[in-house]
Design goal:
219 residues; mainly alpha; 10 helices; 58% helix
Amino acid sequence: MTIVKFVESLIFDGRVRVSTIVDAKGKIQSPSPAEIAETLTRLRRYEELYRPELLGNPPGLLDDGLYWGALMTYRACSFLAHRDVDSKTIVDSLQKTVPPVVSPAVCYSVDFTCRFLPDLIRLAKAVSVEDPLVGCLLTLARQWPLSSVGVPDLGGVDISAFVRDDCLLALYVDRVIASGDASRLDHPLVLSRVRTAIGLHSELAPGLAQVLASISESE
């Protein structure tokens, strides 16, 4: 499956089949310029359908972040399906070209496909917790906290790049509530928004409600 078909299946089906991206010499095969251009065209088209589902106006898309997120997801899925790739190739492929996490637009562009990171990590851990792919995915999860809500045991994450963007903060809070990820309540803005969102309906998120009650008692 090419990256173009991969993106289409990922967005609309949530299920993908991927061929190996490593050639006979053990080198990663890169998509052609035409494939890259078509991938970006489709990602932008699909994002237009996704955007109205969000609360408020999300940041503009950046082609570099949009394509990089798709490429990392494509490679990670291929490595998950094809277990004969050496650890150095996996690490180099997923870590050498990480863009700077500097703005809401970068975070949103990468997130369009990297929002599937929690599912990928769960599947990779099910195969082998010691697999180098798991380590790489956890590193990505720490680097891109908007996309990794719900992944356990990450430690503290830095959300300063997007927390002041109203749309992305709302998206982040929704994910925190949906996943019950209490580790993400360490930022005061997130804590306040989660409290407000849950309100009197603690039965919708009983785990978080219990944590919020404990925090309130200690304040």
